[in-house]
Specification:
This protein is α+β, with helices and mostly antiparallel strands. The chain is built from 8 helices and 12 strands.
Amino acid sequence: MIYRLCSRLRWETRPPRLMSPPATSCSAPGTLLGSRSSGPGLFACSCRRMPAQSTIGYVGPGDLIGLAPLLGGSRAWNAEAVVHTTLAVMTVEQLQAVAAVQPELPWLIAEHVATWASAAMLTLANDSSQPIAARVARHLRELALRTPDGSAVAQISHQRLADAVGTVREVISRQLRTLRAQGVIDTLPGRVIIVNETRLDGIAAGPSHGR
């Protein structure tokens, strides 16, 4: 993300003012963001694959979203706020202005884009080969946020989880019932509480885990 990228640079003078872009609040769920938004909340980044869409990853505090699709000219993606989020929006022109005084930045951006694209491809490849139980567990693990009492809670409905996994609500409800019966999770309206994180990690790793 741009703040982490720029934190690796050595400024000879004071950093440009553009490094403190205005903040914008974003409510969740259901808010779709364009491909030039970044911020300290939790986002689900999705790729549209006809006739449905698949969530290719989640980003959290300080992460950059949208740079790879923007530079690649792709509109087949979106980002959705999972929890209430504050965004810092930067434009291509602002990035170009930073690059003009910091020649290292383009290479750091190239590294970021390559890492993002590789991770997205790996996620899609894994989703096509993993059983539904592993895919549900992976999304729950990545969606879960730590609460003040130390619990890991994914604030998501059955339908929104089905959309993220790329399946239907009935399948998700069945998978969550199984996980609850196994003592891995507990459920409340609009949230899933991770009871056994180690067990959930093992399920998310797929059937080859432990071989």
